[in-house]
Design goal:
The chain is built from 11 helices and 8 strands. By secondary structure, the chain is of the alpha/beta class. The strands form 2 sheets. It has a 6-stranded parallel sheet with strand order 5-4-1-6-7-8, with helices on both faces. Helix 9 links the parallel strand 6 and strand 7. The longest helix has 16 residues.
Length: about 230
């Protein structure tokens, strides 16, 4: 695995990082299920009867995604509320151990870093500012506001990130912790590294198409330095 990981970085001039997971635990202080409940309540206050599957969701991103299906006229209202909660959450998010080392390794080896996330740009920028990480990131590609269908696994955000640093997809690698990240990488033509930050997650992420699965960000930093 170490050899495969090093080889991926040898072939990559840009590192694309998912936000929630690889960079921080964005909902550590304001839990995702709480935000999901608030968004569902907003929809109900607007007179919408929630589909059964939506009523059971505890992921606010999934609530937003499904709103486009059953209440498209309320997507903007849900989006605006969600963005405010995300920015609030970013203010008390917990940084992921090892991400500073990873960013330093990328800087030392001349690799550009772009955050590519289904979370909103303002929330990401808020966290980067508070964590003093802005100067180590070349750009941010957040959620396509008002168009949930273009969130990952759609390749759009990954391709925009590659364009931002003028690197072809084949010379970039996406590091993420979800099935959608692995699928977005495949759809965009980039390599993928899965960050399995929970027990048992490594099997699912491998099945989702990850080129390599790692258990820590420190492991990635070491591989980047080895690949120079």
């Amino acid at each position: 695995m170490t050899e495969a990981l090093t080889e991926i970085f040898r072939q990559s001039r840009a590192v694309l990082l998912d936000f929630d997971g690889p960079v921080c635990s964005v909902f550590a202080g304001l839990p995702a299920p709480v935000v999901a409940t608030r968004l569902k309540q907003l929809l109900q206050d607007e007179g919408v009867e929630l589909p059964q599957d939506v009523a059971e969701l505890d992921d606010p991103l999934k609530v937003l995604r499904r709103t486009a299906d059953f209440a498209p006229g309320l997507v903007d209202k849900v989006e605006t509320a969600f963005m405010a909660y995300e920015v609030e959450a970013a203010g008390c998010a917990e940084i992921t151990p090892g991400v500073r080392e990873l960013l330093e390794a990328c800087a030392e080896t001349g690799r550009s870093v772009v955050i590519v996330s289904n979370n909103s740009g303002p929330a990401i920028e808020t966290f980067l500012g508070l964590a003093d990480l802005k100067e180590q990131v070349a750009g941010v590609v957040g959620r396509p506001i008002g168009n949930p269908a273009e969130m990952k696994p759609h390749p759009g955000s990954v391709l925009r990130a590659c364009e931002m640093v003028d690197v072809p997809p084949g010379e970039a690698v996406l590091i993420g912790d979800s099935d959608f990240d692995m699928q977005a990488a495949a759809n965009a033509g980039t390599r993928s590294i899965a960050y399995a930050n929970e027990p048992g997650k490594e099997v699912r992420l491998a099945q989702a198409g990850a080129d390599v699965v790692v258990m820590s960000m420190q492991e990635l930093a070491k591989a980047i330095r080895t690949s120079r």
